[in-house]
Amino acid sequence: MKKKKIVEDKLITGAPKNVNTPLIASLKIFLTKYQSVKVGITGRTPQERFDEHLNDRNWNRMIVKYKTSSENFANQIEDLFISEFPKLKNHWIGKSELSKEGDNYLYFLLYGKKS
After folding, report:
1. Helix intervals (H) in the chain
2. Domain ranges within the chain, ordered by starting residue
């Protein structure tokens, strides 16, 4: 039986101006260690979203790095990463509809660990 892949939480919180530096540092590490990196945001449970991504590709890991109750903050950070880091496997920039009442998460999907 195949072992279920579990989301890894390494959460930070705060306004974008306060969290961009550590988030960018994490992203740079992921880009050097993995062949494919994708950034995403969700207002649902991260595990539910990861399971959906696994239907499209056998990602090695999903690491949730940021939690906020602000839909705007989550979109700002995702847009920054997509526009500033062309190596990401994202092709769309826009505003995502997230949770207006609960938490929103920014995550990285990682595939193909480099030797």
Report:
1. 16-33, 46-56, 71-84
2. 8-113
